[in-house]
Amino acid sequence: MAVKTQPVTVNLGPQHPSTHGVFRMRVMFDGEEIVDVEPVFGYLHRGSEKLAEERTYTQIVTLTDRMDYVSSMLNNQAYILAVEKLAGIEPSPRGVWLRMIAGELQRIASHLVATGFLLQDLGALGTPLIYSMRERENILDLFEMLCGARITNSYLRPGGVFMDAPGEFWPALDRGLDDIVRSIDDLETYLSGNEIVFSRTKGTAVLPQELLINASITGPMLRASGVDWDLRHRAPYDYYDRISFERKLHTASDNYARYWVRVQEARESVNIIRQCIDQIEPGPVRPSFDDVPRLIRPPSGDAYAAIEGSKGELGFYLVSDGGIAPYRMHVRSSSLINLTLLRDMLIGGQFGDLFVTFGSVDLNMGEVDR
Amino acid sequence: MPEAFLDNSLWRNIYCVLAGDSSTCAARDYSSGFFPAGMEWLAFLVSAAIIIFLIVNAVLGGVIVLIWGERRLFGRFQSRTGPNRWGPFGTLTSVADAVKTMFKEDLVPAEADKILFNLAPVLIAAPALTVFAIIPWGVGTYVADLNIGVLFIMAITSLTTLSVLTAAWSSANRIAILSALRSVALLISYEIPMALALVGVIMLAGSMSLGDIIAAQGIPFIIVQPLAFFVFFIAAMAEMARAPFDLTEAESELAAGYLNDYASMKFGLFFLAEFMAEISTAAIVTTLFLSGWKGFDPIPSHFWFGAKLIFVLFVIIWFRMTLPRLRVDQVLKFAWKGLFELTMINIIVTAVLLAILPNPSTSELWIMAAINWPVAIISIWGVSKLLGTAPYSHPQPDPNAPSYPVGSESIPTDAVLGAEPSNAANQAPQAQQEGGN
Known about the structure:
The structure holds two protein chains of two kinds.
Chain A: E1 8-12, E2 24-30, E3 33-40, H1 48-51, H2 60-65, H3 72-87, H4 93-122, H5 127-147, E4 156-157, E5 160-161, H6 169-191, H7 195-201, H8 209-214, H9 220-223, H10 231-234, H11 255-279, E6 301-308, E7 313-320, E8 328-332, H12 334-339, H13 342-346, H14 351-361, H15 365-369
Antiparallel strand pairs in A: 1-2, 2-3, 4-5, 6-7, 7-8
Helix pairs in contact in A: 3-4, 4-5, 4-11, 4-14, 5-6, 6-11, 11-14
Chain B: H1 9-19, H2 40-77, H3 93-102, H4 114-130, H5 149-157, H6 159-170, H7 174-205, H8 210-216, H9 221-224, H10 226-240, H11 264-289, H12 301-322, H13 328-356, H14 362-387, H15 413-417, H16 428-436
Helix pairs in contact in B: 1-2, 2-11, 2-12, 3-11, 4-6, 4-11, 6-7, 7-8, 7-10, 7-13, 10-11, 10-13, 11-12, 13-14
């Protein structure tokens, strides 16, 4: 007897526990197999780029915090680099070291969140997520010592950072780095050899290298396919040219490779921070107000600066007409561009892998919609 | 009073207080009953009602305690405190939750099939309670000792899926239907290894009655039948649809699946049924594999049963807290390609051993255990090799090969950072690096 079947279209999101914010997918299923996916986003659009046209260059720092809210420091860093390039500001060395330390700490925090939520999407009932979040809390405590804020830091200013680290920050950072290394070891013991994690992530949502490059995917997603592309190494900004670090690559380009690259990068960030601590020198953390006034008026022109964010190349493009606010700001958000291959990853796969793949892209709706 | 109930202390005590029947209650001095002579049948019915009332309330009370205990354990596993506000150590949290659930608005979707939608919670709660009828809680403490006890368990527990399917179909929700289909696939696959795992136990005990199986356990059957225990425990976890087999609820995929449209006490009944199934599964594992209420003497049998039950419940919660969820195809593959073969090995080995040692005594059970353990370890290792995921052959790129598509050395900043600077001020990057040095 032939059974008449038909594909079923289901709306997943925006109110769904695993969409990492407010994301919606119209998914067509044939049984458990995914036939078609239509991503729908924009639910978190706040018009940050437009709002920036009404604010001074220093005020915009607070807007960048709220784009990718799990890596505010890195957003700050990318924006500040663009402003410094636009206005020709020479940063203070100590400020640069401090923002590199803050940025790498933020990268570890972001990768921990990504790993925790990937496991949550895999169906572990909160345990790995809470373990990751617990380690992230220690990093947020360090941020609180640096600037008084935990999530929306606004720590960076054109030319450096707004406040020097207090004396008790440095021993706390040393202890924190040891804790982070230990917790990453724990996480790896628990996850990397786990048969369920491995069998569910190996060989799922494989993306060919050529497709990744053509879609201009960056960050851990690209490095998981074996392309050695890291802006910290390729186009060093700040003082990354004085740091030596290992770039971790994987060739499989599947969900497991993406997870693995993130964990190894978090480890490598600890090494980078240790080198920064060795090389940091006393001095002012930002130029005096004679050199960099509170109200910056860059000469008319444009500038683009990009950093290796936690999710890929994070770039800010600023156009100035000589006024106190940018004429136009555009953000090259890695989350949005990494999302463009969602259909290629999901179609033909299983329903059970849908949110795992979604989690392995590690996107943040605050950055996608801006 | 029927002869079959004479050695059942639960029945005898209640019946004798009510009826004062001198023929059955001669062993104890009950002066007179509440029922006149000739009305013993009524006393029998009333004592049945009292026993059912006691068991149902004990189970529901147990569920309240289990929910609290599970949440406290979750907290400990996740390095947090768990509920600790209502009552000492948060013991009243479940009570508060129950009250909250009852007072919530009862929503019924407009397109739902109203009759089936309202029937499904009842259909899931009733079988979950029925299983407790045959569980021996201690020496002579059971509602009924059926001669087909094991078969009864298998039949009743499989009704759960029908209720899930009813709930999903009647709520007219596509996500719920996906969840119900998973539930059916899960049940059909895991019923078979579950039943076959019990064949070894039944062969050893020579009976399907739970009382006889406990009596046959000179040593706990977990020692004699490790393979059967392994398969039965996993299959029972799958039947309960608990993590790592929680495909039907799958919070991160289906967002509670078939429970999507249920609110208020209808949801509460599903929730109760889930936890009742957890208790009954733990009780069945205790009875069949951990020698039930047996223990050494000064400690009463009910205490032994309770202690083993709590231990099994702890292990179930431990599993749930630790493991991520499997995918549907992996779950089915595991049942058919892994557990099914293991049960077959177990049945063959047990049959051969029983042909050599019929009606085994305790010392002969130890000999069987000594043979069964190596068989279990080797066969589980073999299945894990067969079904396990192979590691990557070349995880790291070859460092000597030119990386694709870009070279290995650094490229100038301007080439990456895009547009040619449009005025002198944009020469900042060079200035910045000089300043840094």
